[in-house]
Each structure stands twice: as C-alpha cells, then as structure tokens.
C-alpha cells in the first residue's frame, strides 16, 4: 500500500493506492461508526463494484445509501446534478453526510460538485475506478459539469477528504478506457518529468498487461507529480495550467462531438500532438522529441490526429471560449522539450490553424 498526502493545510488529505482495497475496512477510509454516506455511481460500475463496497462499509458500521446515475460524459450535466440534489433533499440528508464517488472522472467530477454545493458544501471521498480518474481526475479538487457550449464550464474547487485507489478495478476496464488514462499519464511525463517519459517508453508493454508493480509505480508517480503542482497552485492561477497540455485542443474535440464518441483521453492525445505541432511551428521544439511522443501515444493505442470531420475553424471556435483564453486571445500550454512546457500567450490564430492541419495530415 502506498500513501501520498496532499498538503493543503486544513484541506489536506491522503491518497491511498493499494490492491484489494474493497476487501478490508482499513484505516485508509476516513470514516467512523455511525457516519452516513451516500455512494454515487453509474449503471456501468454499479453491477460490478457497488455491492462489494457498500457491504464493506455497512459491515464496518457505516450507514450507507446509494444513487445510480446513467453512464456517460453527456450526463455530466445540470440535469444529473439535480437528480443528486433531489435524492439528498428527499431523504433529508444534512451537512454531516459524506458522498462517495465510485466511478471514473465523470462520477468524480459531478459528485464533487454536488458535494461542493449541497447545503453550501459537504464532505466527499473519491474512489476512482478508471485509470484516468486514478492518476488525474480524482486528485486536486476540480469539480464540475459540462454545458452544451463548453466543457467543464460550471464548477467549483472542492477537495475530497480522501482518495482511495484500488488497482484491482482496472481489470474490468475496456482497452479504450485504459488507453484514455495513458493519455493523461503521457501528458504528465511530457509536462513535468523526462525520466518518467523514458520509464514509460520502456514499461508501456507492462502497463498494457496490467503488471501490478508497474501500475503501482506509474500511478504513484502521477499522483506525486499532480500533488507537487496543486500544493503550490490549488486554484489554477499559475503553474497548475501546465497540466492542461493538449487540453485546449482536446476540449474543442469533445465539445464539437457533443461529449460522445471520443473519450477524454483520446481527445487529449490528439490535442497533445496539436500542441507539439504548434510548438514545432514556433521553433520551440525539436522533431526527434515530436517523433518520440507520437510513437508513445500510438503504442498506447491513442489517436495522433483529430476527428476527420473537424476543420481547423471548428477548433478555433471552441478554443477561443476556453477558460485559459482571454477576450479571444489563445493562451496555450506548449512543450519546450520532453519534461518542460510553458504557456505561450496570444498565439497567432493562423499558426494554430496550420498546426492543427499539420497534425491531421501527418
Ligand atoms: N477534475 C479533474 O481534475 C479532471 C481531470 C481529468 C479529467 N477530468 C474529467 O474526467 C472525465 C473523464 O473521466 P474518465 O475517463 O474516467 O471517464 P468516465 O467516468 O466516463 O469513465 C469511462 C467509462 O468507463 C466506465 N468505467 C469506470 N470504471 C470502470 C471499471 N472499473 N470497469 C469497467 N468500466 C468502468 C465508466 O462507466 C465509463 O463508461 C471527463 O469528464 C474529464 O473532464 C477531470
Ligand atoms: Zn484531462
């Protein structure tokens, strides 16, 4: 078992990474006998893990309830959020209630936002069940929902009281979703850690066969990297933006496709290649590193081009609305070398269009 503490003064919390986390009620669960929890999950995860976790908590003296939401990114919406509020209000849940998000990033983000806003804020625990949520979405307190006009446009910063990562749950994840998590992992390495990038080049095949020690190392490294950023910049006013590498382009893909077809990680993978090509056009990156990135993404089963039906004009429409853009100016996180990125302000729109076309025609 590995434990990483996110140090944020009063809002500090542990991330626990272990096998068999649903088997024993260990001290890693920050719950006491008599606590009331509502497990929030979806109709894909519920049949596999809900009863196991609920039974464990009930056996340990926790008063449990559950809410099963429809699966899918398109349900990270105001309508679904309201379903959570209605459930909590109908059953008179008070401010001592603890929500548990059991699922991927969608369940984590919406449950976290419900916890941030229900009766002005209640506690919640993240139990991420996708690789993507384990290495990224469950950590750092960004919570929220999508709007038809833009992804993650409504939300709040609200830290969980713990993140409980069970490696066993990755065995039921589809290959497409596993790859999606690899996109964020590769993002961390490009943005922050060149030796981790080299480690990924040598250990990707182990990760793909779910070799447990490699998974443990990889997930722990990502959690450490994310912890190192959010403890300096919890509210994304500075250095935290490096974690958005590929995201301004990727969010455009997700929004354009209506949060369906392409997974978040697939969109980010194509977005990373677009950021790489923008950096190449700005002469701030070298071709051999660009090739290494393209090869690693491809080996991870990820796309290195955007969807065929999207034109560069489509991207720019959404990119100008991105939270990092101010008055239509494009401010982009771009790589300088593997392990280093910087935000480039007011990038020329024409150059961005050409880099998107470079990516899609390569
Ligand atoms: N808050 C943050 O800091 C942050 C960071 C990155 C991404 N995100 C958000 O996370 C979301 C993407 O998360 P995601 O990739 O986990 O998507 P997801 O939550 O939609 O999960 C992907 C699919 O896998 C299924 N699933 C989950 N766990 C499973 C398991 N163990 N076995 C089988 N199937 C399982 C889900 O039901 C879903 O169908 C996006 O909305 C993105 O914006 C948030
Ligand atoms: Zn992401």
From TrEMBL:
Domain 3-dehydroquinate synthase C-terminal: 181-325
Cellular localization per UniProt: Cytoplasm
Keyword Lipid metabolism set for record: no
Transmembrane portions of the chain: 97-118
A GO biological process held by the record: amino acid biosynthetic process
The family this protein is said to belong to: Belongs to the sugar phosphate cyclases superfamily. Dehydroquinate synthase family.
Protein name from the UniProt record: 3-dehydroquinate synthase
Organism this protein belongs to: Candidatus Blochmanniella camponoti
Lineage: Bacteria, Pseudomonadati, Pseudomonadota, Gammaproteobacteria, Enterobacterales
Gene name as annotated: aroB
